[in-house]
Amino acid sequence: MKIVIASKSSEETLRIGRIIGETASPGEVIALVGELGTGKTCLTQGIARGLAVPEAYPITSPTFTLINEYPGQLALYHFDIYRLEGVKDLEDMGYEDYFYGGGVTVIEWAERILPLLPAGTLFVYLAYRGENDRELILTGNNELIGKINNLCKEGGC
Ligand SMILES: Nc1ncnc2c1ncn2[C@@H]1O[C@H](COP(=O)(O)OP(=O)(O)OP(=O)(O)O)[C@@H](O)[C@H]1O
Ligand SMILES: [Mg+2]
User: pTM, whole model, 2 decimals?
Assistant: First the structure.
């Protein structure tokens, strides 16, 4: 199953993210794949809202630390592996405790670690279509996509 969602503003991407966050269960891994500036961090900000991460926490990319962790209804583990030098860096930090933990993992540039991603990972491919236009393609976790699709049809996206 695959759904394609058009976003015409960062607010729309935030809203899609919020739906994804509201739908996610403990141990969910969400792999974000898209070029620079396609909205990966923006989508993650929406996911954080959906997980009820308190507004006091700004969600910015954890460029130098690999991961930022936020409390929420479910914890958010936000990875940005743009600068990852090798898988060993992830092993050293015990990434499996996050991927298979009780929170929700979001990974920017996830295509760099495809073999490490658990079965059932939700993939979100983001593509630039114009200054404010982005295309989001969701695939990889049919159960979650079904729920997201229903919420989108109800007017959420
Ligand atoms: N429809 C849209 N969805 C998301 N972002 C949009 C959209 N339209 C414009 N933008 C703008 O595009 C930029 C997206 O930036 P963002 O940091 O989320 O991208 P990114 O994919 O995380 O980039 P990076 O690869 O540098 O981490 C923001 O400035 C945002 O305001
Ligand atoms: Mg980013």
Answer: 0.97
